[in-house]
Amino acid sequence: MLWEVAGEVRSLLMLPAALTMQVAHPAVGAGVDTYSVFRTDPWGRGERSLASLQLWVYGGQEGIEEGRRLRRLHRSIQGTDTRGRPYHALRPDAYAWVHATGFPVYQHGRRYLGGRPYTDAEERALYAEWLRVGRVLGINDRDLPPTLEEFWPYYERVLSEELEATRVVRELTAVDTRVPPPDRGPRALRLLLRVLWPVLIPGLARFRAFVTVGLMPPGARKAIGLPWSARQERRLRRLGRVVAALVPLLPERLRFLPRARAARAAHRAGRI
C-alpha cells in the first residue's frame, strides 16, 4: 500500500501536517529548533527529507543504509526540551513518535484527498507496512504498538500528555511570507520564480498554512491548540474533491515522484 501512497503527489500535501505533529513533541521540537537548518535552508531541508522518505519505502538496501545514516546523524542531538527535561534524539519515545505520525496523517488525508476513507483491512495493512518501515529506521518492535488496536490508545496518550504548540509549531503554521524563492530546479524556472515571488508568496504561504492545519487529524489539531473553522473545513473538502478526481487521471510520470516511478518500473520489468 505504501508504494501507492508515499510516492504519489498527493503525499506532498500531507507531509507538512506530519512534520508539524512531530515538532509538537517537546523533545522533537527542541531538537529541531536547535539543530535543524529549516530556517536558513528551507528548500534544501525539505528536499532532503523527502528524498530520505522515498528511500525508506522504495530504496531497498539503500533504504536500510539511509536508516543507519539517520541514526548516526541523531547520535549527537541532545539538550533540554521545552519543559526543561533532558532529551536525546534517539530516545525511543521521541524517535518513534516522529515515525508514528505518518500513519494517522495518511489515514486522515485519505478521507479528503483519496475520494473515500480506507477500509478496516486497508488501515491494518497500511499500519503493518508502516511498522516495517520503522524497522528500516532502527525502531524496535517494542517502541511502537504492534497492532492497530493498540496504536490508537498510544496515539491518544501522546496527544493528551505530550503535544503542545512549540516554537517550531508556531512557525510552521504561520502564514510566513519571508520564505525565499526555490533555489532548486532548472535555472530558467528559478529565475522566473525569483521575479514572480513577491506576487506568489502571499498566496502560497496561506495555502501551506491551510493544508498543514487542515490535513492534521482533528485530535492532534485540538491537542496542539490550532484553530480550525467550519468555513475552512468546507474549503478543505472542496479542495479534496478536486484532488481526488484529478490525480488518478494523471500519467504516471506526473502522478508519482521520481524514486517511486523508478521502483514501479523496475518491479514491472521483474528487476525487483
Keyphrases for this structure?
globular, two-stranded antiparallel sheet, 2 strands, 15 helices, mainly alpha, 272 residues
What is the topological layout?
Layout: H1 2-5, H2 10-23, H3 26-35, H4 42-58, H5 61-74, E1 78-80, E2 86-88, H6 92-100, H7 102-113, H8 120-136, H9 148-161, H10 167-173, H11 187-214, H12 218-224, H13 230-246, H14 252-255, H15 258-268
Antiparallel strand pairs: 1-2
Describe it for me?
By secondary structure, this protein is mainly alpha-helical. The chain is 68% helix and 2% strand. It is built from 15 helices and 2 strands. A two-stranded antiparallel ribbon has the order 1-2. Helix 2 runs antiparallel to helix 10 (167-173). The protein is globular and about 45 Å long. The mean pLDDT is 95.
What structural class is derived from the secondary structure elements?
mainly alpha
- Number of discrete helical segments: 15
Task: Tell me what portion of residues adopts beta-strand conformation.
Answer: under 5%
Q: Please state the overall shape, judged from the principal axes of the Cα atoms.
A: globular
Order of helices and strands: HHHHHEEHHHHHHHHHH
N/C terminus separation: 16 Å
- From the alpha carbons, calculate the radius of gyration and give it in angstroms: 18 Å
Helix content: 55-70%
Question: In which order are the strands of the major sheet placed?
Answer: 1-2
Number of strands: 2
**Global mean pLDDT:** 95
Spans where pLDDT lies below 50 across 5 or more residues: none
